[in-house]
Write a structure and sequence with these properties.
Double Stranded RNA Binding Domain; three-stranded antiparallel β-sheet; about 60% helix; single chain; transit peptide; 7 helices; Pep_chain_release_fac_I_sf
């Protein structure tokens, strides 16, 4: 196909195609395609149910109520994992909820992740059915029930259509 373009357009066509190839190559290597970024058109879709969630009861962490210790990690990785103390044990003193986090290699990231996990556990502990996780589960349940209702409705319509088609073919056979 490119050869046909070259024949019809001549030298100008070759330059245009070559320029498009260099633009495509430069776009592939640009920062927009190599760094993970959230496209702007996806943001409203992801935040669609964000407005339905009630964050007013979400707990706040008070650093004085936390007891933080660093322990040695475990799991796959051998000596590199076993000799570093980057596993975070975070205990909320008033409720005695303990969180252990050893997801990342660095202690700093594990501290941040442990606090997120502890906040979710405190939210579930204090708020119960009004916690963020329970709200998300309820929204997901409503969505799946609606999906199931639509699917059942479609199945009924298909079944009625098949029955009607069978009746029509039976009537056509009787008439012939």
């Amino acid at each position: 196909m490119l050869q046909n373009c070259y024949r019809t357009l001549g030298l100008v066509g070759k330059l245009i195609v070559a320029e498009q190839n260099t633009i495509a190559h430069s776009l592939r290597n640009s920062i927009a395609f190599t760094t993970p970024m959230t496209p702007n058109f996806l943001v409203p879709i992801r935040l669609k149910h964000h407005q339905q969630l009630d964050y007013s009861r979400y707990p706040k962490l008070i650093e004085e109520e936390l007891e933080e210790t660093f322990t040695r990690g475990s799991g796959p990785g051998g000596q590199a994992v076993n000799k570093t103390s980057n596993c975070v044990l975070l205990r909320h003193i008033p409720t005695n909820i303990v969180v252990k986090c050893h997801i990342h290699r660095s202690a700093h990231k594990n501290r941040q992740e442990a606090r997120k996990i502890l906040l979710d556990k405190l939210d579930s502990h204090f708020n119960g059915e009004f916690s963020i996780q329970a709200q998300l589960k309820a929204i997901e349940g409503k969505k799946s029930a609606e999906r199931k209702r639509r699917q059942n409705k479609l199945q009924e319509m298909k079944q009625k259509w098949k029955e009607r088609e069978q009746q029509e073919t039976a009537n056509d056979n009787k008439n012939n």
